[in-house]
Specification:
single chain; alpha+beta; Immunoglobulin-like; 2 domains; rod-shaped
Length: about 290
């Protein structure tokens, strides 16, 4: 830039409204010892200082540049002295208070825009947080359901394992008795087996090909004892394939078991047989 161009940009330099390349040129020119430009820059800085004192105690990042653009627009209006022809003394004479008002206006716009931007950013962050929270809650719900299912499965496996262990105890007995139950001539084509372990007082009963019963009915297993007659051993409902199973105990105060039988009874069972007998099997007499 020429000396006149540098001198015309001193106001913008004082306001910090130049780009880095222009600023470097002016700094180099001042460093060369130009007393006139140094003196005028000092006057411009005095003007800027008076504007800051008359306007605001805040320091917006682009405030000086915005004020410089406003001053340039004012300078292009009819009857207004162009910025390139202003002098620092002219600026002070024209009234620093009016320019300070422009500073406040620009600062207010900057602050208002910044506040709106912060509010909008806060809203976006809150929306994302709500979405993340909803996703987390849904994942937690799914994990809770999966955990409940796993716990239910584990409980079922433990029950099955316990039942299997009890069954093994019955089957391992050296004096295990096997009783085959068959239907009467007019009965359904079903059959069953009872495995009786007198030492443990337990028995396993398995039935096959039993016909279904209505909801108000069930099958009931009986021990036919020596002294008390029929003693209830368990109630069951077969599955769709006609399979039924009962883990039963052996009565200890009814004398020896002479037979096993199955009848159809009201759902929940009864204390003595009332319905038709569908299966019967006699135990072998002890040797």
């Amino acid at each position: 830039m020429t000396h006149d161009e540098i001198q015309a940009e001193l106001a913008a330099f004082a306001l910090g409204a130049l780009d880095p390349l222009e600023r470097e040129e002016i700094v180099a020119h001042l460093a060369s010892g130009c007393a006139a430009c140094a003196r005028e820059l000092a006057e411009w800085r005095e003007v800027v200082g008076s504007i800051a004192l008359a306007g605001s105690d805040a320091d917006a990042p682009n405030l000086k540049a915005a004020l410089w653009r406003r001053m340039q627009r004012e300078g292009r209006r009819p009857g207004v002295i162009p910025m390139s022809r202003w002098r620092p003394s002219t600026m002070l004479a024209a009234g620093a208070t009016a320019i300070a008002a422009a500073v406040l206006l620009v600062l207010g716009v900057v602050r208002d825009a910044g506040l709106r931007q912060k509010i909008e950013q806060f809203r976006q962050d809150a929306s994302r947080a709500r979405t993340d929270l909803a996703v987390t809650h849904e994942r937690l719900r799914v994990l809770t359901e999966q955990l409940a299912t796993k716990e239910h499965d584990v409980a079922g496996l433990r029950a099955a394992l316990a039942a299997a262990e009890e069954s093994l105890k019955v089957l391992r007995a050296p004096d295990l008795q096997l009783v085959r139950l068959t239907p009467p001539p007019e009965g359904p084509p079903a059959e069953a087996h009872a495995l009786i372990n007198a030492d443990t007082g337990r028995a396993l009963f398995y039935a096959f090909d039993l016909p279904p019963v209505t909801e108000d009915k069930a099958y009931e297993l009986w021990w036919i004892t020596e002294s008390q007659g029929p003693v209830r051993a368990g109630v069951f409902v077969p599955d769709a394939a006609g399979f039924g199973r009962v883990d039963a105990s052996i009565p200890t105060d009814a004398g020896s078991i002479q037979a096993a039988a199955v009848t159809i009874e009201p759902a929940g069972g009864v204390t003595k047989p009332t319905g038709p007998m569908v299966l019967l099997g006699k135990l072998a007499a002890p040797s």
